[in-house]
Each structure stands twice: as C-alpha cells, then as structure tokens.
Design goal:
With 232 residues, the chain is mainly alpha-helical. It folds into three domains: 2-29, no CATH class; 44-131; 140-222, lambda repressor-like DNA-binding domains (434 Repressor (Amino-terminal Domain)), CATH 1.10.260.40. It is 59% helix and 2% strand. It contains 15 helices and two strands. A two-stranded antiparallel sheet has the order 1-2. α4 runs parallel beside α7 (93-103), α4 (49-61) packs across α9 and α11 crosses α12 (168-176). The protein is globular.
Length: 232
C-alpha cells in the first residue's frame, strides 16, 4: 500500500485531496497535493487545452523535445508546468511569460493563438498536428517512424540514430514499438529527418516536406532524457 500511495499520479492525488479521501497517514502525498493545487498569487491565466497544445508545440519548436529539459532551465515546479501543457489547471502568467521567453514566442500568442511571427506560425502548425494526434494501439506511430526513416534516405535505424546523434537503443526501440514514444518525440524525429510532422502525428500524406523546417533538437540536454517521464 505504501508503494501505491507513493506512486499516485498528480491528477489522482489532487482528486483525492479535493474529495477528502487521501489517507490521513499519507502526509507526504497530502503535502505534495496541496503544493500542486497552489496557483500563482498574481496574474493567473486560464490555460485550456488549446493553450496547452501551443505551449507544448512551442517547446518542441525550440528544440526541447523532452519537457524535463525545458523545465530544468525554466526553474518551474514540474507539476505546475506539466499541468499547463495539458490544460489540466490554471497557470500563473509568470509561468507562461518565462516559457514564452525561452521558446521565443509571445505570451499573447500562447494564450490567444494569434501568430505574428514566423516562429509563431511554425508553432501553430505543430500545435495543430499535436491536437490532431491520437496515440494508437496498433503500432502505427512506430510504423510511420520507420517509413519516415526510409524515405529520408536512412537504410537502417542505426544509421539514422548515428547521423542525428540519438541513442541507438532508444531510437531502435521507438521504431520497433517496444518503448513508449511521446508525440513530441515523434514530431521531433519527423522534423529532424525532413518529414512532415502532420504525417507522423496523424498519417496525413505526403510523408516528406518539400520545404523542411530549419530545426535542431537540443541534443546536449535531451539526448539521454527518457521519453517515459511521468506526464499528467
């Protein structure tokens, strides 16, 4: 039971606190849940799913495929940031302001979706791909990744991983479907290999982008970070 309580997800822990059902003896979980429920004292903005998708897309566009790499730089509590990306709850404007500065977009864009720069238009495109994605149970993400790799001219998974500086075992497992792959990681692979992120996310044709985006992953930070970090 102790392990079950320790491993409670952020959402479940919060729901239990709201309903008054968290065991009294689980003081650590109760304290963490209370912290997770805290909202910025000033400048609170409601973050919906569309804003969360834009926040996630802006992170990927900036090269931070794994959220933890951006969170460490931003210095924001991990639950707070992850909840903002999923639209799970409100986030203070300081959170969005800090993220906007790091990702080189405006807070106005993150909240309203009104793109005014080339970067913001690119982020809008990625946000639409993310919003239209549904994690399949039939392995189609991994099969699309394999097709992207082949059509981009990489004969083997090892060749693709070596060229782009990805951990070989991680990429190979993603292509085989034996390791969980986030939508951000899939889109990152597509961008790196010159494929359309829309193909990776939803299978929409064509596969390759006639005008690939100038994009590079922050491999020095992301390279060894796990895709399977807990997300809300």
């Amino acid at each position: 039971m102790a392990n079950q309580r320790t491993n409670l997800t952020y959402e479940l822990r919060i729901d239990l606190v709201r309903c008054g059902l968290l065991p009294d003896e689980d003081e650590a979980a109760r304290a963490q849940a209370a912290e997770d429920l805290a909202v910025e004292d000033q400048g609170t903005l409601v973050v919906d799913h569309q804003t969360g998708d834009r926040l996630k897309a802006a992170r990927v566009a900036a090269g931070y495929v794994v959220a933890k790499s951006a969170i460490d730089i931003l210095g924001i509590a991990e639950p707070t940031y992850r909840h903002a990306e999923t639209g799970f709850r409100s986030a203070g404007s300081p959170v969005l302001d800090a993220a906007a500065a790091l990702y080189e977009v405006s807070t106005h864009f993150l909240v309203t979706g009104e793109a005014r720069s080339e970067r913001e238009h690119f982020v809008s495109r990625l946000a639409q791909a993310i919003a239209g994605s549904r994690e399949p149970s039939d392995g189609s993400w991994s099969s699309r990744l394999r097709r992207v790799r082949i059509e981009s001219g990489h004969a083997t998974a090892i060749a693709a991983a070596k060229q782009h500086g990805w951990p070989i075992s991680t990429y190979n497992a993603h292509e085989l479907g034996t390791r969980m792959m986030s939508i951000e990681r899939l889109i990152g692979y597509c961008l790196a290999m010159g494929a359309r992120p829309e193909f990776g996310a939803s299978g929409s044709m064509p596969v390759m982008d006639l005008r690939p985006a100038e994009w590079s992953e922050v491999t020095s930070v992301v390279g060894t970070a796990p895709d399977s970090a807990p997300t809300p």
